[in-house]
Amino acid sequence: MRIADKWKEYKILDTSCGEKLEEWGGHVLVRPDPQIIWKSPKRSGMWQRADAVYHRSDKGGGQWEYRAKLPQSWQIGYGGLKFNIRPTGFKHTGLFPEQAVNWDFMADKIKNAGREINVLNLFAYTGGATLACANAGASVAHVDASKGMVQWARENAQASNLSDKPIRWLVDDCEKFVRREIRRGRFYDAIVMDPPSYGRGPGGEVWKLEDCIYDLVQTCAGVLSDKPLFFLLNSYTTGLSPSVMAYILKDVLCTKFGGSVTADEIGIPVEATGSVLPCGSTAIWQADVRDKK
Fold first, then answer.
1. Secondary structure (H, E, C), 103-154
2. Is 286 exposed, middle or buried (0-12, 13-18, 19+ CB in 10 A)?
3. How far apart are alpha carbons 143 and 122 in whole angstroms?
4. Lower CB density within 10 Å: C or N end of the chain?
5. CA distance 32 to 58
6. Sequence-separated contacts (24+) of 178-184 with Cβ below 8 Å
7. Helix (H) or strand (E) run with residue 206 in it
8. Residue 38 has what pLDDT?
9. What phi and psi, each to the nearest 5 degrees, are found at residue 167?
10. Measured between alpha carbons, how far is residue 280 from residues 33, 97, 102, 201, 238 in Å?
């Protein structure tokens, strides 16, 4: 497992009975997490002093119970990056802290590439990967279908003093955007992809990641440059194991570009126990070192 253990302004304090106790820049939240199937004792005294608790509804969704007055938005930092945190009606806060381990990987690859790197960030959410890549010196196309998420990402870029970096902010369907880029002859040296587990198309059709991921990776391979640097694929889908994602990347990318593939769970340490909470999976294709320039 690859562990995001360099945070100074975010912590998982404890986990038990389907919930995690987190500290976000001094504000303590309790949120549900389906990975937490253990019923261990609650070791932290902060459970009873949490500022807000998210309660799931039997009808789907849920709501926050505020036990203390929280600001509508506040910031936490990672390295030189700043992120605006806001509890939403779907339990999320606008950031997936476990992704920091991937931000560090991408930043290192870009800084040591020895050339200009053009990154495509698909399903880009509030821009964690976008900011990490831009801060490392890359040009980035940030694509998400949600106008609100793209605006949130732009606010994070401003907070991180990255507004003047070469970032294209695009509200678009990711797959359709990639197909248009192929037709336009525009290519990228690196791709980051964080697709949802499921969704619905414009006609109401159900989109399931397990059914669509291979075709999506194949399509995206068509927009890679002649000397791509990396292709990073994230998943929070329990039925899509790291090994399956690695197989797909190897099948689609290694046959065309060579290179190698690694895949693993990513996670965050739990302060109360010293164990690590698994928080999804990442598969990474990367070029051979001798081919990077």
1. HHHHHHHHHCCCCCCEEEEECCCCCHHHHHHHHCCCEEEEEECCHHHHHHHH
2. buried
3. 5
4. C
5. 13
6. 178/120, 178/122, 178/219, 178/220, 178/222, 178/223, 179/219, 181/120, 181/223, 182/219, 182/222, 182/223
7. strand 206-208
8. 97
9. -115, 130
10. 11, 11, 12, 24, 8
Amino acid at 232: L
Residue 233's DSSP bridge partners are 193, 283
CA–CA separation, 160 and 75 (whole Å): 10
Residue 86: predicted pLDDT: 97
Residue 26 CB burial class (10 angstroms; 0-12, 13-18, ≥19) = exposed
Amino acid type, 1: M
Six-digit token string for 130: 């976008």
User: Which amino acid type is present at position 65?
Assistant: E
Token output for 170 = 């695009």
Radius of gyration for the alpha carbons in the chain, expressed in angstroms and rounded: 19
User: Three-state DSSP class for 257?
Assistant: helix
Do 123 and 150 form a contact (C-beta atoms < 8 A)? no
The interaxial angle of helices 128-135 and 147-159, nearest 10 deg, is 40
Indicate whether this model's pTM tops 0.70: yes
SS3 157: helix
Ranges of residues in the chain with a pLDDT under 70 are 198-207, 290-293
Q: For the segment 125-167, what is each residue's pLDDT rounded down to a tens digit?
A: 999 999 999 999 999 999 999 999 999 999 999 999 999 999 9
* The pair of three-digit structure tokens given for residue 153, joined into one six-digit string: 């990402």
**Element at 221 (helix H, strand E):** helix 209-221
Q: What letter does residue 237 receive in the DSSP assignment?
A: -
Question: What is the reported pLDDT for 44?
Answer: 97
- What confidence score (pLDDT) does residue 203 get? 60
- Which is nearest to 7 in space by CA: 77, 75, 108? 77
